[in-house]
Amino acid sequence: MEPVTIKTIAKQLGLSIATVSRALNDRYGIGEATRAKVKAVAESLGYQPNAYASGLKRKGSKTIAVVLPGLDNNFFTQVISGIESVAHQKGFHVLVYLTHEDQQREKEILQIVRNGRADGILISVANSSGGYAHIEQLVEAGMPVVFVDRICEHIDVPGVVTNNEESAFEATKLLLAKGCRKIAFLGMAPQLFITGSRKNGYLKALRSVASEQEPIIQEFEKDHEKNIRLLTDLLKHQQPDGLFAVSEKVALLVYEVCGALKLRIPEDIKLVGFTNMPAAAFLEPSMSAIVQPAVEMGERAAELLFKVIGKKKIFEIEKKQVLPSVLRIRRSAG
Q1: Cα(107)–Cα(294) distance, rounded to whole angstroms?
Q2: Interval 206-260: pLDDT, tens
Q3: In angstroms, rounded to a whole number, what is the distance separating the alpha carbons of residues 265 and 267?
Q4: Comparing C-alpha atoms, which of 239, 334, 330 is closest to residue 289?
Q5: What pTM was computed for the model?
Q6: CA-CA-CA-CA dihedral for 200, 175, 186, 281, to nearest 10
């Protein structure tokens, strides 16, 4: 659905855009009857003023908004650190909003921000199958937007990601090199671009060797107790000898369930997973991990956003920035 603008109201009422604007802003020269009629139609159509445009006239709020799915892993806390350091240098404040993987909450947050809370938005999108028309509308309305980590490829705005597919390929190849012949992909948030990229890397690694292994794909949800049951069933019935975990949350779930089932890591089952958790090196056994350049990703994303806010030219080569992750090999991979 197209966003409702002053032009929409003017067309419906047969008035000029200037008249509608003056009526909505309680300016002089507009009769009370016209003012009331304009405001009634605006309310019925769900009109929201473009407070961002108004903010430009007031020289902005000197604030940027950071919209994230949550802070229950170390990656996003490090991203915020990178963003904040750049914002501080620019003399800007940072507002952090959490969607908790709820797209309706994401929509509400973006509406609040659009109404004048910030001069630009850095966003890592919530996992949802509902599409991202609300972000497209925000961009069309002129709000500066930059993606960090979780991007929407079809929306033409700058973004910073890591080399998800390559990292997943290397992690799976490591498990194959360690002798694993039945490797399971432990995923989460399947609608996300980054999850698909990591799955592609896993599948590509399986195809790269002369192996008859069929892919084993297990997707997890928000409910921790349900995830325990899903992983327990997988380990009991399919009995993989290697696990590639797509996120920190899933990787830690492996330790919990293997402990309950008396499965030894890495003797019975080997593990590699994405995590930026410093304590990964001190788990028992220490965890082989793909570590993302989270702080630098936050810095790069913030620098891009300030370019957009300042209307500076962004070259095509810097519009989508892919930073390499590092595979740290520890005991969990054998």
Answers
A1: 25
A2: 998 866 788 999 999 989 999 999 999 999 999 999 999 999 999 999 999 999 9
A3: 5
A4: 330
A5: 0.81
A6: -120
